[in-house]
Amino acid sequence: MQVVIPSDKARLCADAIRFLSIDAVEKANSGHPGLPMGGADAAFALWGNFLRFNPDDPRWPNRDRFILSAGHGSMLLYSLLHLFGFDLTLEELRNFRQMGSRTPGHPEFGHTAGVEVTTGPLGQGFANGVGMAIAAKMAAERFNTSVFKPVDHHVYALVGDGDLQEGISYEAAALAGHLKLGNIVYIYDDNGITIEGKTGLAWSEDVAMRFEAAGWHVQKIDGHNYAGIVSAIAAARDESSKPSIIMARTHIAFGSPGKQDSSGAHGSPLGGDEIAATRRNLGWSYPPFVVPDEVRDICAERVETLKRGHAAWVRGMQVWHAANPEMAKLWDRMWNRNVPAGIENELLELLAGKDGATRSLSGAALQKVAEIVPALVGGSADLAPSNNSEIKGAGSIMPGAFSGRNIHFGIREHAMGAIMNGIALYGCFIPYGATFLVFADYCRPAVRLSALMKQQAIYLFTHDSFYVGEDGPTHQPVEHLASLRIIPGLQVIRPADGTETAMAWSMALKTADRPTALILTRQKLPAISRDGHFSPDDIARGGYPVLSPDSDPDIVIMASGSEVHLALESAEALLSEGIRGRVISVPCIERFMEQPLSYRESLIPPNLPKVAIEAGRGESWHRLVGCDGLFIGIDHFGASAPAEKLAEEFGFTASQVAVKIADFMKKIQIF
Q: Which value, in Å, is the radius of gyration of the alpha carbons in the chain?
């Protein structure tokens, strides 16, 4: 490839990035100057010669994606965004890491134009990029024609030693290599330094051989040799049958006489004296936050060239739309991630009043949803037959073939969650991923980031309690429901039967600004008999009455999922004690707590005693039962035995629950 920007001008621009980063970290007295200083040459070589974008249209579907997986080096990305015309002013760079600024300590998606993903937890960005690359391949398969290709871009990332030491990176790398994702180009900032010192303290593997074994195209270069960097990126971009990683050997804090190649430059400002020495060493005579006009002109010229490419794509899309009307309709539906307004009616027609394991009911819902929501894609961490998570007849994505809708993540829950985030961030698709609830901890960091980034990712967690039975305590979740509910912004729904499962899927699909976790049973559940005033819309409020006595109730009994029918049976048993119970199904505590106080208190009057029943820990229920209420659950691990034996052993039969509630009423001197 012919170099767009010559080496002398590129070095000037790279130095501008270095000193913007140095100055911002110094002004904030906080941050990581070492990575931006060491990675500036490779980053500018990429942005100045290869990366396709338009700062006036930062969400352009066919832009190249750039991920700074080593998010602690955020000033590298902020400097690039500023120089290349994104809506990030010099004043924002001056306000690095300050309250309300658009330059937070780690890049945050949705907060700063041009930031593709929230990075910080190491390895996540690496895996997000794999998700984006999968999504791009799937989109290209659906929309590219022999005449025009609406999707033909690449996914680039800058990754560091910390990314590659985290296990998630190898999970994702193995899948990327297997799928032959030739649209991935990662630059590894191989500076050999972490916070504690040299990477050799804890790391001696041959990283190149690791990636070669995983099926990647591997190159080794000097990360400060501009011509070599450009040549390597060109070769990686032209490699279409394998993902590429460029191992760029760099010097952390490049150019700093006293801090280069030291861990001291990883996460601390250089200090005034060292900055002055670095300016002298690199021949940089400009004051803090001053960018030479020549640098601004070089970057502006590059942007104008890129805008012409963007305009050509827009014109091509107009012709493509006219020539392919049905494909164009699908493009619009998928990129808008359209969900039919009345989707709940179709799901209710299929499932209302049905009994069965909610994992099976969810599987039936999935087939219907797949028919009417073409954006839905996903799979399981090797548990599809148990999770009921395969879209039947839709085919699977395979190496070099991406027309299917089923993704086989392999036994890689951590990467599965991060890849789902990458797919969601890419656009065009609504991803789902499935595993057992007890393994939610394996993908929890990615679930948390789904919520932080407000991404529509749907997690199917099955085998939701001790009712898993004979597999024993290693497979019986106890604390997992409570732990998921404390993640801000995560919608956790635990349906009780077919009607609630239908509405749970509808809620997940209609909630575009946060992730959803569907919590599903292994065991069969009876259909719930509801009172005459019930409307399916009540379920979407998170909590609603399933049994109301003819006269004022003496107690409110709440439950979710498999314990709703237990609450109903217990309420019936309590009538022999003269205790009238109102039973409330609460499939989604988060939704219920968002309802007006008047609605919540109409169901759960403050003056009535309150009980909640759930086969797990009860921390998340205390918002509803209060300090004086009764929670019937489990605060210990399970055991290996048939489910019905465990229910009796753990006090989860109707007669046992009724006795506990009656004793509670006597204790508080109600009866």
A: 28
- Average pLDDT over the chain, rounded to an integer: 97
- Look at residue 42 and give its three-state secondary structure: helix
Q: What is the mean pLDDT of residues 18-22?
A: 98
Hey, which bits of 305-403 come out as E strands? Answer: 356-357, 376-380
> Each residue of 236-252: pLDDT tens digit?
999 999 999 999 999 99
For the cut 90, the answer to whether the pLDDT of residue 550 exceeds it is no
* Helix then strand then coil, % of the chain, to nearest 5: 50, 15, 40
The residue type found at 147 is: V
C-alpha distances (whole Å) from 107 to each of 176, 235, 324, 510 are: 24, 29, 38, 28
What does each C-alpha distance from 478 to 336, 462, 472, 566, 621 come to in angstroms?
38, 13, 12, 18, 14
Q: How far apart are CA 549 and CA 560, in angstroms?
A: 20
Given a cut of 50, whether residue 1 has pLDDT beyond it is no
- Going by C-alpha positions, the residue among 6, 4, 2, 78 that lies closest to residue 40 is 78
Q: What is the dihedral of CA 10, 11, 16, 18, to 10 degrees?
A: 120
Name which of 358, 352, 350, 354 is nearest 524 in CA terms: 358
Cβ atoms of residues 57 and 86 within 8 Å: no
Are 456 and 505 a contacting pair, CB within 8 Å? no
pLDDT at 668 (0 to 100): 87
Phi and psi torsions of 248, nearest 5°: -100, 105
Closest CA to 427 of 70, 109, 176, 69: 109
Compute the distance between CA of residue 218 and CA of residue 245 in angstroms, rounded to an integer. 5
DSSP state of 128: H
413 is known as an active-site residue: yes
Domains annotated on the chain, with CATH: 7-307 (3.40.50.970), 343-525 (3.40.50.970), 540-667 (3.40.50.920)
Conformation bin of residue 12: beta by default, left when phi > 0, alpha when psi is -120 to 50: alpha
Question: Helix/strand/coil (H, E, C) string of 72-88?
Answer: HHHHHHHHHHHHCCCCC
What pTM value is reported for the model?
0.97
Instruction: Tell me how long the chain is.
Output: 671
pLDDT at 220 over 50: yes
Q: So what's the pLDDT on residue 670? A: 64
Which residue in the list 26, 413, 500, 614 is annotated as catalytic?
A: 413
Distance of CA 541 to the CA centre of its chain: 25
The span from the CA of 267 to the CA of 253, in Å, is 11
- Across the strands, what pairs with 407? 379
Label the pairing between strands 193-194 and 197-198: antiparallel
- The whole-angstrom separation of Cα 603 and Cα 596 is 11
Closest CA to 434 of 425, 443, 426, 424: 443
Contacts within 8 Å (CB) and 24+ apart, 78-81? 78/20, 78/24, 78/103, 78/107, 78/112, 79/16, 79/17, 79/20, 79/21, 79/36, 80/17, 80/43, 80/44, 80/47, 81/55, 81/112, 81/113, 81/114, 81/115
